[in-house]
Amino acid sequence: MEPKPGDKVKIRTVKEEIECRLLESPQSEIYLVKLESGYNIGVKKEDVIELKKAKSKRKKEKKEKKSQKGKVKVKTRKNLPKIDMIITGGTISSRLDPETGAVKWLTKPSELFRFYPEMFDIVNVRKVKVPFMKASENMDFKDWQKIAKEVEESLNDNEVEGVIITHGTDFLHYTSAALSFFLSGLNKPVVLTYSQRSSDRASSDATLNLQCSARAAISDIAEVMLVGHANINDDFCYALPGVKVRKMHTSRRDAFKVINDKPLARVWPDRIEAIKGYRERNNKKKVKLDISFNDKIALVKFYPGMDPEIFDFLSQKYEGVVVEVSGLGHLATGEARKNLLPAIKKVIDNGLVICAAPQTIYGRLDPFVYSPGRELLKAGVIFLEDMLPETALVKLGFVLGHSVWKNKIKEKMLENISGEINKRLEE
Fold this sequence. Notes:
eight-stranded mixed beta sheet
């Protein structure tokens, strides 16, 4: 019988023999397959000498799948501190379905515990909350608000030492920024973590990330932080400040880097070493929730030849815009064929808030060095120093969400609420 997508197969070519999982292929001339390592590759049909089912491991896979349906007893120890976990989706909450080759959510807490038992040598998980299961690109501010509410409830419970949030990687830094603004007067650690590779893969980074997250969640660092691999090896993790972090690689295990700042700490499963100052734990305090948000905001990157009409369009739909400007804070002005300055002046005069953030990522804006920056500043553009564009977008929505701040938007955007502005830049 001809192998079908989902079957375990052996493919023999002139160069090699591959044992893999056959997947649906978007191209008729290629076999799309998933290797044992978890990677997908394409094999040209013209290079295939033989394709046949690999039947030997089928029974074993069915047995493994059946065993996964059994109950999992979560290990608890009386002497370990308690944390809460909030599961929201992402690769860290997924596994390979051996029948289809597709990646599926770990929708039940018991499934998550089955793959990551090591963290239970560090903490007891008192409660697991699943407000939703989404890929991070499908989230918006309503989801950030849901997470913040769950975090506040947990942090204000005397039993809980800290919170771990599992999350997809692509837009994790938006969520960490939102929580940094939504949770005022933090009393305990809030740790967001991730995995670049699913739990069933030998190269998965989830185990170390969760162990280190557990250690960070019971530390004295009462900050919103992102904990993940410090390098491509399983050496240790960094705890990175939630407003100064960015995903800087599509697939590496150490994809997240701190920008214009230092990590909060180095973290191992058995210890944590602080690198910079931080807000200290205070279990007697209560965290305050402030989830006001206005989503009539946009993030736009300036590019050569940008049409001034963009700002007219934005002013009809939005109340605030963050523009990723070039260099020290420049847009096309002066002798440019498409001078943006008149359009910017017009929309700002009509009430649109325009903020500038550096598209270079590293470094700080300084509008006083060159005339284009000075002209934009005079027009009313708010220059956000070294604030990351993504953090700036989230902060702008947070600030505009407070009607009482209507007459001091610039003041609030330049107020260093959660460490989003660093007066002294770090490599």
